[in-house]
Every structure is written in structure tokens, then in C-alpha cells.
């Protein structure tokens, strides 16, 4: 073994604590990068494979009723590659073991299996058979949530008629990767599912022979989606079309695309912080190593070692912990990625979400870590290489000390000697102290920003499930009902309060901008459904005009006082000019509101309602549910409490997982910075501390001098870390927000206390380890001079 290699191994063993701390920080950054890169790639590859194999469409359209002969006109549109017409209906279900009414979306499939757009993946059971009109395939999430198996039966009201459906298979479809009830944002898998039924059976049940109400198509390469959509709108306007739209407006794909985009954001932020801290730690460790080995560098040069050999020798001190951290981080990243992939399987419905590990991610992460090593080591290596042998043989020139700000102000007289030593040392090395504060602050910031999403989700749940929605039950009608339906609903046993609203599909146009957007007509804005913004402030609905959510107003480039062109897509299909009365910053979705009476007037009809919010007498809920299950006019229901519980269960696992990961990583970061800072201070000041011991200072006072400085730096880092954490949280809120939802900027005192407490606890642990080293300080060996 070469002499320099033996020296390297001996020194690495001596510095093992500090090197392992650096390796741990690097491992945290690399593991996050590898895990999130692989998860993002896995989601993209799984989506692409699933969409391709089961032929997910590019453009979608729903209408009231159109003849099948229209398909020839659609195929004639330039750029259309393939077309599929389907039947679709929303129905109420009676599920065994479930007291409340459930809802299902019935979708037609060919009587005999054949490749079609938006095909069905069959997980279990078999395909429907011709001549068996009661057979259906049910979505996997619905089956699992209700503990159903192929062969079980459910009741349904289809087109006003009661029908018993027999489930023969369990399936999935690329159009429902994120499966939620129409109009909802949160899944309730127990009370909503997707059912696939043979075309002939559903055609007969809906009295839709030779017709369709749902259209999907794919585009040829290079085709203009916008042009195809315009042609479709012109063709199907007279058939009650609600407007064609592309994948970017398809709810399931938008949720999935937003998730992939958010994973990309996480790939950059955390690894950058950890590698920056790794650079800082390597720099201070190696600079101290070069400073303490000046005489050894001189001897090596005198013996004939070239500058390149000496430079590579000291560079190896940086490469070793980085390579160890990269290896450990890669393994940890694979383990984390596999676990996170399992979490995503609970959110998104893929036939098989496989974790795909890419060596490219490892190569890139290795390049990042090596770059960090070179960046952290360059200053120390340069000083070792440029050090002349004659100068290196002499002890390092003593530092020139000058009175600091506090000393010049006379404050030192108010401090004890140990405190004055602490203050002087920090004042004499302000940049090092400032960087130490910044690195510890990053640990606090990661904890706070990591738990920001927990605060935000809790706030969203509070606003959506408590403040905004105060109904017990929402009843959806299968078609617009006259205003007199309120008397029928009020007569139902168990209904305490009923409020009705109208959802009118429309196109909002402002200059060259337009948007398909339903307009919601409300009876009042402070009833069971309240208009509240992202920060739970009540908004009063004006007598006239539209109220738009802020994001929708931005998309249309309008504000209060501007005027929109509203093209109604149903009924008389009127086009009217409507003023924008104001905007409201809601959390979820894009919405347009106005008073119900005003919407009736603009639509030009006698008034109709789409659904009702109900407050229910709990003692009579069972009988009410039984009646709703068989009401022909009801196409679906949603339970507020059930949706909240489902959302809480779904989000709990991911929140716990992310909190544990970030807490662990931030703890490693804080430990590494505090421990390395204390160890280097001990190495630099061991002669000074030993002299103080000889002069009569106790071990406790010596520990106070050394660890007190680290305590001051840690305490100073806490408010800085909280501030950085808040800034990171704001950036995360902006990065994670989309058209589907906006992340509110919310900070809770609990999470601030949690972040500060974890950092202090880790700092205390690292201090105890350094205190053990102080107690073992060899006074005789330390006080020996080199002269």
C-alpha cells in the first residue's frame, strides 16, 4: 500500500465522525433525487404505456342525443384518426351493506370484446356476454371499497326503471385513473363507481337505439386539436353538445399531469439544499485539515511528491464521503421510491404501477455529488498545492485579533469570561458564523416547508367540509327539473332544509379568450353552500352579474367591471353579455356564480334546478336513503361526511410518510452542521481550551465555552430558518397550485414549534457527543508545541 494511501485511510478513520456526517447529508440529497426522479419517470412511463395500450382518446365530447350517422361526418374531419361513440348515464345504486345511496356512471362497451378507444382493462372475472343485459363490469376501486366480488348484485334505477345488475368482472379504464364523481374533487370510492355495460343492454335501458351521447376520438400526427374541436362544436351544437375538449381539460388526466409536475418541483428543491450543505461542510472540514497538516505538506513536497499528487490526496478526503453518501443515497432512494410508488397506487388507478429504476438517475446524481465534492474541496486543495515548503514548515501565523463591536461598546464588562470568549470568537469569524447559522436554518426550513402541505391540506378540509359546505347530502337530478320540485323534496320524510341550485353549461368569451365553464346559480351565498374564499372569508353574492374565481378571471383576462359574452350550451342556447361583478379566490376548481333568478332570466326559460343541498334529520336518515335509492329523478347523491372521511383516509398515509422522511432528513442535516461545527471548533481551539483547563477552568466551563457557541448559532438560526421555511412554503404553494386547486399559504404555530423542537433536540444530541470528546481531551498531548 502506498504511503499516501495509508495516510488517507488513517486520517479518514480519525475524522470518521465528521466524514460520516457529510456522507449522511449527501445521502439524503441523493436519495430524494433518485427517489423522486424514478417515481416521476415511473408515473410518466406507466401513464404512457396505459394510455397507448388501452387507446386513451385525445378529444372528448358529450351531448344530449346524436344519431350514429354523425360518425361519418366526424371521420371526415381533417386530422381525426379514430372515433368511438358511446352511451353514458349517471344512476343511483343500492349496494348491499351500504345504507346510503351510491352513484355509478354507466358506460357502454361493445357486446363482444374488441379493441376500442378508452378500452377496459379486466383485472378479475370476465367480459359481459351477449344476451345477458344485466351483466356489468365494475371499477376496481368501487369493488374493493364495498368488498364486492364478481357474481355479486347491485340495484340501480336506470331511466326511471329499477334494474338488478350482476357484476361479472372488475375493470379499470385510462379515462378514470383518478376516479371521482362528476362535479367532485375528492374520491369517495365506496359511494361512487364506474360500471361498463354492453351497448345493446344500455341502449335498450336508455331508449337510445341508433344514438349516442358521448364521443371520443384520437388525432392524427400533426393535427390541430383546436381546429378539430371547432369543427365538432359546429357539428354537434344542435344535438345539445356541451362543447368538445382535449385531454388538458379531462379531469383524471389533469390530476395526474399536475402530480407529475409537482414531483418535478420536488426533484430540484431538496437535493439542492442538501448538496449545498454538503459543500459547506466539506469546505470547512478540508480547510481545517490542510491548516493542521502544514508541516506534513511541507515534508511531502520535500520528499518529492508533486503538487498533483498532494492535490489528489486531499481531494480524496472529499471524494470518499461523497462516494459513500452517493452509494447509500442511491440505495435509500430506491427503497423510498418503491414505497412512494405504493402510496401513489392508492391515489391513481393503474393496472400495474411499476417502480422503474433508471441508471441515468444514478449517473446524474453521482455527477451532482462529485460536483459538490469538487466545489467543497477546491479552496482547501488549492491552498495545499500552492503552499511553499519553507513556509509550510513554519507554524501558521497567529491570527490578528481586534476588538469586536460589543467589546468596543463596552458590553464585555457585563459578561462572564466564558461568555466573552464565545462572543469574541464569533465576532472574529463572522462569515463562518453566518454560514453555520444559514446551514442550521436550512434544517428548520425543511421541517417547516415539509409540514406546510400538512397545514394546507388541513386548512382545505376545514374550508371545504366545514365552512363552505354545511349540507349533509347533495341530491343530483338526472335532468333539469322545474322549480316545483322543491315541494316534492320538502315532502320527503327526514329533510329539514333544502336549498336548490342550477348548473348551466356555457362558454365564457372575452376577446380572443374563451373557456367552457358551467355557471352555478345559487339561491343564496350564506346558506348550506356558502361562498367563502381560500382564507374562509364570506363573499356576498351580488344581485346582478357574474362572480368568477380568481384563476378563471385571470385565464379570461377580466376583472370586476368588465363584460363577458356568455354562450349557453343547452336549452335555447342564448348568447348574452354579462358584467363581471367581482372575483373570489376559491381553493378548488374554476367556478362562475350568479343568483339563481338572474341565471333563469339570462337562460331565457321558466326556471329549472339541477340539484339540491339537504340538511337531514339523522333519526330519519335511513328511511330517506331508502326512498332516494329508488327515485327515478335522482341520478346520484354525495354525502359530505363520507367524502371527508374518504379524503382523510386517503391523505393520511402520504402525510405521515412525507413527515417522517422530511423529519429524518432535516434531523440529519441539523446534526451534521452542529456536530461538524463543534468538532472543528474543538480541533481549532483544543490548545486554547487545554490552556484554560491548566489555568483552573473546569470541564463544565470548557464545555460551556465550546458548546455555548454552537448553542448561540443554533438559537440564532431558528428565526432565520422559520423565515426561510415560510419563503419556501410560499414558493411551494405557487409551484404546486394549478387550475384544479390552489394551495393556501397557511402556517400553524404547532408546525413552527415542531420544527424548532426537532432542531433543538438534534443539536442537543450532537452536543452531547462533542461533550464526550471534550471530557477525553489529553492536556499533555494538546499542549505540546511543534517548534
Automatic annotation (TrEMBL):
- What sections of the protein cross the membrane? 20-39, 263-286, 310-335, 355-377, 434-454, 655-678, 711-734, 746-770
Instruction: List the lineage, top down.
Output: Bacteria, Pseudomonadati, Chlorobiota, Chlorobiia, Chlorobiales
PANTHER family documented for this protein = LIPOPROTEIN-RELEASING SYSTEM TRANSMEMBRANE PROTEIN LOLE
What's the chief localization of this chain? membrane
Q: What is the topology of this protein in the membrane according to its UniProt annotation?
A: Multi-pass membrane protein
Q: Which Pfam families match?
A: FtsX
| Entry annotated with the keyword Glycoprotein | no
Ranges of residues in domain ABC3 transporter permease C-terminal:
269-388, 662-777
Signal sequence coordinates: none
Designated name of the protein: ABC transporter permease
Q: Does the keyword Glycoprotein apply?
A: no
Q: Give the record's keywords alphabetically.
A: Cell membrane, Membrane, Transmembrane, Transmembrane helix
Task: Name where it's found.
Answer: Cell membrane
Family, according to the entry, reads as follows: Belongs to the ABC-4 integral membrane protein family. LolC/E subfamily.
Do you know which InterPro entries this protein is assigned to? ABC3_permease_C, Lipoprotein-release_system
Amino acid at each position: 500500500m502506498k504511503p499516501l494511501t495509508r495516510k488517507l485511510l488513517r486520517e479518514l478513520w480519525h475524522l470518521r465522525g465528521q466524514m460520516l456526517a457529510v456522507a449522511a447529508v449527501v445521502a439524503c440529497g441523493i436519495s430524494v433525487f433518485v427517489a423522486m426522479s424514478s417515481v416521476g419517470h415511473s408515473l410518466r412511463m406507466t401513464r404512457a404505456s396505459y394510455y397507448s395500450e388501452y387507446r386513451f382518446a385525445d378529444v372528448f365530447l358529450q351531448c344530449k342525443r346524436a344519431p350514429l350517422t354523425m360518425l361519418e361526418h366526424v371521420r371526415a374531419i381533417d386530422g381525426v384518426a379514430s372515433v368511438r361513440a358511446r352511451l353514458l348515464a349517471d344512476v343511483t345504486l343500492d349496494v348491499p351493506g351500504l345504507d346510503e345511496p351510491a352513484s355509478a356512471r354507466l358506460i357502454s362497451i361493445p357486446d363482444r370484446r374488441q379493441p376500442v378507444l378508452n378500452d377496459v382493462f379486466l383485472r378479475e372475472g370476465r367480459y359481459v356476454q351477449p344476451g345477458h343485459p344485466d351483466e356489468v363490469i365494475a371499477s376496481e376501486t368501487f369493488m374493493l371499497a364495498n368488498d364486492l366480488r364478481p357474481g355479486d348484485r347491485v340495484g340501480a334505477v336506470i331511466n326511471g326503471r329499477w334494474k338488478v345488475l350482476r357484476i361479472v368482472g372488475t375493470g379499470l379504464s385510462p379515462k378514470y385513473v383518478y376516479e371521482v364523481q362528476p362535479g367532485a374533487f375528492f374520491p369517495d370510492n365506496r359511494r361512487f363507481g364506474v360500471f361498463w355495460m354492453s351497448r345493446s343492454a344500455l341502449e335498450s335501458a336508455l331508449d337510445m337505439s341508433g344514438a349516442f351521447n358521448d364521443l371520443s376520438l384520437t388525432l392524427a400526427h400533426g393535427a390541430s386539436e383546436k381546429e378539430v374541436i371547432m369543427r365538432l362544436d359546429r357539428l354537434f351544437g344542435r344535438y345539445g353538445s356541451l362543447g368538445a375538449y382535449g385531454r388538458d381539460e379531462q379531469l383524471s388526466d389533469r390530476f395526474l399531469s399536475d402530480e407529475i409536475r409537482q414531483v418535478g418541483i420536488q426533484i430540484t428543491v431538496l437535493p439542492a439544499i442538501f448538496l449545498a450543505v454538503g459543500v459547506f461542510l466539506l469546505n470547512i472540514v478540508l480547510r481545517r485539515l490542510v491548516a493542521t497538516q502544514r508541516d506534513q505538506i511541507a515534508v511531502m513536497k520535500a520528499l518529492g511528491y508533486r503538487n498533483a499528487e498532494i492535490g489528489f490526496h486531499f481531494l480524496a478526503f472529499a471524494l470518499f464521503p461523497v462516494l459513500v453518501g452517493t452509494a447509500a443515497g442511491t440505495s435509500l432512494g430506491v427503497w423510498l421510491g418503491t414505497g412512494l410508488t405504493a402510496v401513489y397506487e392508492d391515489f391513481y388507478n393503474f393496472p400495474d404501477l411499476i417502480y422503474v429504476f433508471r441508471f441515468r438517475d444514478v449517473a446524474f446524481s453521482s455527477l451532482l455529488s462529485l460536483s459538490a465534492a469538487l466545489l467543497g474541496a477546491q479552496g482547501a486543495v488549492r491552498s495545499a498545492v500552492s503552499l511553499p515548503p519553507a513556509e509550510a514548515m513554519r507554524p501558521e501565523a497567529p491570527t490578528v485579533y481586534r476588538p469586536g463591536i460589543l467589546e468596543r461598546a463596552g458590553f464585555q464588562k457585563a459578561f462572564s469570561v466564558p461568555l466573552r470568549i464565545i462572543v469574541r470568537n464569533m465576532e472574529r469569524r463572522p462569515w463562518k458564523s453566518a454560514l453555520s447559522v444559514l446551514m442550521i436554518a436550512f434544517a428548520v426550513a425543511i421541517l417547516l416547508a415539509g409540514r406546510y402541505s400538512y397545514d394546507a391540506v388541513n386548512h382545505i378540509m376545514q374550508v371545504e367540509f366545514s365552512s363552505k359546505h354545511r349540507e349533509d347530502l347533495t341530491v343530483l337530478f338526472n335532468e333539469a327539473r322545474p322549480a316545483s320540485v322543491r315541494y316534492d323534496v320538502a315532502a320527503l320524510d327526514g329533510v329539514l332544509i333544502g336549498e336548490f341550485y342550477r348548473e348551466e353549461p356555457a362558454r365564457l368569451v372575452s376577446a380572443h379568450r374563451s373557456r367552457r365553464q358551467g355557471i352555478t346559480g345559487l339561491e343564496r351565498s350564506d346558506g348550506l353552500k356558502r361562498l367563502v374564499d381560500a382564507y374562509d372569508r364570506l363573499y356576498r353574492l351580488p344581485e346582478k352579474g357574474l362572480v368568477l374565481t380568481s384563476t378563471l378571471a385571470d385565464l379570461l383576462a377580466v376583472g370586476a367591471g368588465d363584460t363577458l359574452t356568455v354562450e349557453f350550451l343547452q336549452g335555447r342556447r342564448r348568447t348574452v353579455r354579462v358584467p363581471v361583478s367581482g372575483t373570489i379566490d376559491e381553493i378548488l376548481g374554476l367556478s362562475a356564480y350568479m343568483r339563481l333568478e338572474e341565471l333563469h332570466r339570462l337562460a331565457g326559460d321558466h326556471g329549472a334546478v339541477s340539484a339540491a343541498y339537504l340538511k337531514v334529520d339523522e333519526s330519519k336518515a335511513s328511511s330517506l336513503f331508502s326512498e332516494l335509492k329508488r327515485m327515478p329523478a335522482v341520478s346520484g347523491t354525495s354525502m359530505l361526511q363520507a367524502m371527508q372521511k374518504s379524503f382523510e383516509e386517503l391523505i393520511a398515509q402520504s402525510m405521515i410518510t412525507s413527515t417522517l422522511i422530511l423529519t429524518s432528513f432535516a434531523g440529519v442535516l441539523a446534526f451534521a452542521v452542529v456536530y461538524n461545527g463543534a468538532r472543528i471548533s474543538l480541533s481549532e481551539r483544543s490548545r486554547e481550551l487545554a490552556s484554560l483547563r491548566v489555568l483552573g477552568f473546569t470541564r463544565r466551563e470548557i464545555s460551556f465555552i465550546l458548546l455555548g457557541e454552537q448553542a448561540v448559532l443554533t438559537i440564532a438560526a431558528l428565526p432565520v430558518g422559520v423565515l426561510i421555511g415560510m419563503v419556501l412554503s410560499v414558493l411551494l404553494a405557487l409551484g404546486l397550485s394549478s387550475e384544479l386547486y390552489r394551495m393556501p399559504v397557511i402556517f400553524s404555530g404547532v408546525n413552527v414549534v415542531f420544527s424548532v423542537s426537532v432542531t433543538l433536540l438534534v443539536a442537543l444530541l450532537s452536543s452531547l457527543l462533542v461533550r464526550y470528546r471534550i471530557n477525553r481531551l489529553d492536556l499533555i498531548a494538546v499542549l505540546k508545541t511543534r517548534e
